[in-house]
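User: quick one
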Amino acid sequence: MARPTLAVWKFASCDGCQLSLLDCEDELLAIAGAIEIAHFPEASRKSVAGPYDLSLVEGSITTPEDAERIKHIRAQSHSLVAIGACATAGGIQSLRNFADLDGMAAAVYPRPDYLDVLATSTPISAHVPVDIELHGCPISKYQLVELVTAVLAGRRPRLPKFAQCVECKAHGTACVMVAEGQPCLGPVTLAGCGNLCPRVGRGCYGCFGPVEGANVAAMTARFAELGLDARQIRDALRSFTAAAPAFAEGGQGNG
Amino acid sequence: MDGAAPMLPVRCRVASAQAEGADVATLTLEPVAGALSGGAPGQFNMLYAFGIGEAAISLSGHDEAGRPMHTIRAVGATTRALTAMEAGAELGLRGPFGTGWPVADQAGRHLLAVAGGLGLAPLRPAILAAAAQPGAVSVVHGARSPDTLLYAGELSAWAAEGTPVYLTVDHAAPGWTGRVGTVIGCLPPALAGHDPAAVSAFLCGPEVMMRATAQALSDAGVPPDRIWLSMERNMKCGIGLCGHCQYGPDFICRDGPVLRYDRIAARLTLREI
Amino acid sequence: MAERTIKVDALARVEGEGAIKLKIGPSGVEAAEFRIFEPPRFFEALLRGRDAADAPDITSRICGICPVAYITSANQAMEAALGVTVTPEIAALRRLLYCGEWIQSHVLHAAMLHAPDFLGLEDAFEIARLRPDLVKTALRLKKLGNELMEVIGGRAVHPVNTRIGGFWRAPDPERIAALIPELEWGIGAARDMTLDFAGFDFPQDEADYTFVSLVHPETYPIELGRIGSNRGLDIGVEAFAEHFAEEQVARSTALHARHGDAPYLVGPLARYANNFARLSDSCRDTAAAAGLGPVERNPFRSILVRMVEVQYACEEALRLARGYVPPDPPAVVAPRRAGTGHGCTEAPRGICHHSYTLDDEGRILSAAIVPPTSQNQKQIEDDLARVAGRFLDLDDAALQWRCEQAIRNHDPCISCATHALRPTIERV
Amino acid sequence: MDFATDSAVTIDGPQQVVRLLREDGWRVIAAVERDGALVTREIASADALPRGRVDELGPGHCRLVDGPPGRWFDHVIGPGGWKEWLFPPREKLWSAQREGQAVTFDDAPQPWPKTAFFGVRPCDLAAIARQDRVFSTGPGDPAYAHRRAAVLIVAVNCARAAPTCFCASMGTGPRAEQGFDLALSELDGRFVVETGSTAGAALAARLDAIPATEDDLAAAAAMSRRTAETQTRHMPAGIAGTLRSAPEHPAWDDVAARCLACANCTLACPTCFCSDVEDVTDLTGDHAERWRHWDSCFSPEFSLVGGGAVRASTRARYRQWMTHKLSSWHDQFGESGCVGCGRCIAWCPVGIDITQEARALSTEETPA
Ligand SMILES: Cc1cc2nc3c(=O)[nH]c(=O)nc-3n(C[C@H](O)[C@H](O)[C@H](O)COP(=O)(O)OP(=O)(O)OC[C@H]3O[C@@H](n4cnc5c(N)ncnc54)[C@H](O)[C@@H]3O)c2cc1C
Ligand code: SF4
Ligand code: SF4
Ligand code: SF4
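Assistant: Done. Structure below.
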């Protein structure tokens, strides 16, 4: 049986999610043995033409060309997996969605007229159908290995659908909101990172994006009780998954 | 079932695999080592596809050699893997679990088996048992379309042997001259000639279909404590430990899946229970 | 000689997306372009109005390969603006974390992205088939770097445990101590790998670079020092903008940094040349055994300098791990106030400079971030032209590969070049 | 008083109990302070106990602060507890190997050293008994039984109730009646030790102790009475029946607007037992494992069937949790699933209070 082929693609992003693949030091050679890495420019000069069994797509869509390019990638991919906060929610660069793009461009570039960019940063799913999403800024390399393993085994990858709190409780991490009064987005954030922030005594900043059915209104009401003003509440929701609908709406009502 | 390790599957082999349509297959299983406990009509086993997962699958009968049979529809990864298995493939089995159809208790009464879609699979062993008494059972079976009627060959055989069989489809196809509509439409003809008070009914199918059917039957005079439904809920352990299959106070895996209508009639009217 | 065009539309084995284009005419190389086509992400703009504390985490997302560089430069800039100084224990833990990033990033580049060039292979997976031991050692070293980052930072990419003034929680001493045996191994492994790579057949090349790096009287600079050069520059990090300017070039539209009027080089070659005397004896010994002098001007040999730095980072990490005292409290409280602050640290690819101005609530009024790759971009282009000119006898395929190498020599991190945008190039 | 007090003794402090247990080879687990909360960990000596510390608890609130100096057990309970030992958050059920067609299974039990739970509060004793029943009903869970059989329990009667405690109204505390090997009551500067099993009696006999006097026993009883009297929360009477007839009560919508569906309440609850299983494979695809991990009726996929989640709304999920806990549990196991420990109140990030929600649903207690 031929090994399934893998392609890795990049859009507006920091490379951190695809780096997570190279960070699977213990599994990398086994992965490279089990699947054919057909297109992965960050790691290899070699590029085999499509179609591909599995495409990992990092980054968000921010330019007209990229909005076209993703369609070609979709057409060549049997299974398309969006990896990371950029690809699943628009990433940190989606903060532009809430601001005036021209003003932003002028702030960074002496000649903003050279730029050809879209007014918004949008997730891959806003442009083409996506089969699976790996969340996080960056993704968890354990979830990435699980994805590859599940694809090889023909099963659904185990990707939690519940809130970050479940990981904290299972891990025995004290709730930073209850025990320290720190604002934490964990209750409305998808699990998967391994409760990294609360484990170091820090409130979750929501990098895995909202959990399904997130009750952001109740969450932000609690933040207000903890002493955050409207602007702080808005900024708390506006980080790496700011454009995810639940967080975007929650931010609208504040600040 | 091995009482010491209720979560550990027994190693089984597919003795034969029979396609029942596009995405449905019946597997006959035999243990590779050791023995399987029998299992009564209405009970289910947890079938494990290696590395993929487990699914609750009802017994759809036993073959002449007493080997359990399961009819499975491919809806997700596990059931896809199970339905793709060929003779010789190995899988894990835990069970049997749950309550069965109270077939023996219906002696002297007329049994009406009402099946929606794949719901005919768990009813099949009950129908076969009841059919030992000529004229004791009638079968109502509804399907989406004529080509998704389950056990089509067996249905004709039953009819030929004198068991009344009423078929209906949601969407007719060219050449279909039978009924079109829900199973409710089959109930008046199926009940005709029987004293409803002396009729017992076993229902299996989608929850909405069972709710409407049970209501219609009791409206027609079939006693609510003579109607049984086979319920479905998410299920992970099969032995009342995982909590997933709770339906009000009942664990579907342990107190069900076959539950008596009068016990759950109120619950059936509640949303999201 | 006929006109030749060498084009690489999507450079491989670099972080981020870039392209090169060379035009060669009868008189030699007529044009050499190194283009960066990362879509712009407007970091400076989207920081405006945010609390000072948001800057380290947000700027970390400029680059997933060297997040600690961004986090540390931003934290230092904010501490300067807010007028706080961290304790020696916090400073030591910071340096230890940074060592993890150096090890991880350098080994990734040297062994997995750069080494294949010298072996004539497409990638590290091909090396793994021929020299599995080499790739396994490299992965183990890289993992060591990542483990340092995970133990201290919470995760390897975009660590979560850092904050202005220090850390959220000091790592358990047992977890730091558990890394010691592997660090002891790492020092030797890095040395062996340096000597192994020293046997590569390096193309002859040399350039008279202006080397710019941090300089420090006592230590090889990682997260500390003034900004200095081999041409006599010696300034505090707050004076960066007076000496270095960024400009936007229409052709490639990346912001190019210049020192006065000339290009300059940051990164391992610069750090090494400017701070050779600060390396440990054992690292200088490895350098000598690998044939490196106190200054290395052949960019193709930067792989060796990178590996010497890996050895140094392992030695430093070992020293810091052995002397680890959990900072208590883990962070110095930084009260909000108005101010301007600058921070500059040595990312694996060179200096990463941040400056921020805050209002009296500690909100960001303006931000300026100069990553290493945009500083090197002009120099890389010059390298490209020079290398192409030097190897014109090669056939197109070989010349193309050699030119790609000229870029990869500098481990450019195109994701870092946040100020860039992408010209229309059809790919896929 | 029952037999336990007949043989009661007094000792000067808990150190010797821990020492004795360790000498006898028990792994001693106790509540210690970690990152601002009480967590159960193995301890080497009584020095690790959070002596002099108390937990200020309220809805969605916990702070560990200094309490009366020298007092050993004036704190109450942390978010976790004994559940995570007897019913671990993640547990391998078995592994399987494939060779060609052949699939073989292996469920070698995980090693479990003999373990002493030190400082179990009465509500948690009741909670352990609840889970004992759950995990032994039907074919039961042999792994749980295996662990449970090797557990010795040293209970501590509560001298202080937190504002979140309501064990008195659940009949589970604040004094331990059964289910322990030893039970300690902390008086001023000394402890009354009662025995509840032959193993406990054997241990007590080896303590450096003096027989308890009538006064000691009276003081211990008075302490428990005082603790009960200071409880400010209680569960409305007849809540099991109330919930049976309240599935469409408007109060469910009200709580659903506040509830985050984050599952903290269920995971902190010492009786909640729901779990999920996951199938793990390696990259070769020939080795598979089945793991069980905690789940919650608040999880989006908990009630998934073919057509989607049965309980899609937070209203339905909260109703399931509370109705199961306070009502269906009686039908299933003949008792309440709530022991009044108050964890779900303290560790709910938004401070939802099960007793107050119960009151909102109770017709009998609605203020006129
Ligand atoms: C008592 C009982 C008897 C059943 N009898 C049969 C039968 O005879 N034939 C048949 O084809 N099907 C039967 N089912 C349904 C069958 O169990 C599900 O279709 C199957 O579990 C779906 O698993 P999957 O991984 O293939 O599907 P997926 O769509 O991949 O399922 C996704 C996930 O949904 C969950 N899920 C969906 N439905 C169920 C369910 N009913 N129970 C537990 N988890 C579920 C699981 O977590 C599963 O991993 C029965 C179900 C029950 C409860
Ligand atoms: S705790 Fe939250 S912010 Fe932190 S890593 Fe996890 S998902 Fe991201
Ligand atoms: S329901 Fe709440 S008070 Fe009752 S036992 Fe569970 S956590 Fe404790
Ligand atoms: S009641 Fe509280 S703890 Fe429980 S799910 Fe709702 S918000 Fe979370």
